[in-house]
Amino acid sequence: MFDSLIIDSPKRKVSAQSKLKDFFPYYAGFPESFAKSIIGSTSLKTGAVVLDPWNGSGTTTTAALKLGFHTCGIDINPVMVMVARARNLQAAAVDLLEAEAKKIFQKTSSINHHVSSDDPLLQWFDIDSTLVIRQVEQKARTLLIRDCGTLENMELNKYSCLASNLYVALFNACRVLTKPFRSTNPTWLRLPKENEHRLSVTKLELKQQFFFQLSNVVASLRESNIYSDASTESSIIVGDSTTFIRENYADLILTSPPYCTRIDYTAATRIELALIAPLLGQSRDELSRKMIGSIKVPKIVCAPDINWGETCNAFIDKLRNHSSKASAGYYYKSHIDYFSKMARSMRGLAKSLKSGGGAVLVVQDSYYKDIHNDVASIVTEMAQFQGLTLFRREDFAQRNSMSGINTRSRKYNKPTGSVESVICFLKKN
Ligand SMILES: C[S@@+](CC[C@H](N)C(=O)[O-])C[C@H]1O[C@@H](n2cnc3c(N)ncnc32)[C@H](O)[C@@H]1O
């Protein structure tokens, strides 16, 4: 079934980047063309299920749906679940978006007229502006999501693709409005300094920005042209890969686990998480701790496990004994946190694959100071421990990688780029 896989470079080309950028700017994904080549070059049968347990912006789920397969995407970040779900709005429903959006800006007496003092939007916006944004968000919530509860009980899963698109337009509008607090680092939105003014936005300004962003979203959905027949199921849900198991479920897993480069994925969606705070049921800090690759580590961490494999254990050993400050403390803990979460996820991933199924993972290596963190070999050994067989590996050198973003680490003697590896496994019958 996987003999003639076509493996293109997983690096997103500028043209593909700008397409997704119009929909929602996301830095960590692989291109849709890459996912389509992989899925399209398998001999999956009608009714097959394609799973991505780290679905991010939904490249795998969108590509699989377009190719006519059932899809399931999991991500721990509700913002990314909304984005991935929004991308799957059927062509016929795109025409409804603008009419629904207009309802959001109509006046009603039932909306809140005060701002809660702990509203996270207050970090960037003054009180009046926060009220304006929150009223619009509240209207979107009550109009389209109704009584779904909080995300704690996974009720986000009832959100329609339509509602998700309105949230994406609101996300993008708030991204533009908070531009004064952004730098060239795509993952970072800073907080105003003490003496800096909070942003001021009128309802009219928000409305104009919102409808401008909605027209981009609509144009990019029209270009993407999702049209699947009613028998194709797509479920994109909030979930944690470290605990997710759906035994013998997927025919193909196509995914890209979080990088091990100390990049906080919640930081990249800071303003979006602030917007959906009433639905989150947890703080950004709590969500951040659960993420793989979190920069917030628990005070007590487990010991390295021999079952994580030789490469992983040798790396941890070198890191712990590195002479630089905090190597044996913070950095040791944060890497243990990463590898233990990865090992648990690989168990769920292997169990969720059907016998005879295949898993294709895109992983990026990195450096801790001058020590090579060979994530591809580490993940391979973890997968093998769970009974999967490696049948192919392609390496692609990357010039600009996420591991280069932390400029302070450049003083060490190491290559400037990184290698992105596509590793392919089989679950033998
Ligand atoms: C490298 S990105 C995936 C990008 C995706 N392939 C795309 O094209 O957009 C990794 C994703 O893993 C998610 N993630 C981190 N920890 C997770 C966990 N414990 N369970 C599920 N998803 C998690 C992050 O939110 C992020 O969206």
UniProtKB/TrEMBL annotation:
Signal peptide: none annotated. SUPFAM superfamilies: S-adenosyl-L-methionine-dependent methyltransferases. Residues 20-81 form the DNA methylase N-4/N-6 domain. GO terms for biological process: DNA restriction-modification system; methylation. It catalyses: a 2'-deoxycytidine in DNA + S-adenosyl-L-methionine = an N(4)-methyl-2'-deoxycytidine in DNA + S-adenosyl-L-homocysteine + H(+). Keywords: DNA-binding, Methyltransferase, Restriction system, S-adenosyl-L-methionine, Transferase. GO terms for molecular function: DNA binding; N-methyltransferase activity; site-specific DNA-methyltransferase (cytosine-N4-specific) activity. Its EC number is 2.1.1.113. Belongs to the N(4)/N(6)-methyltransferase family. N(4) subfamily. This is site-specific DNA-methyltransferase (cytosine-N(4)-specific).
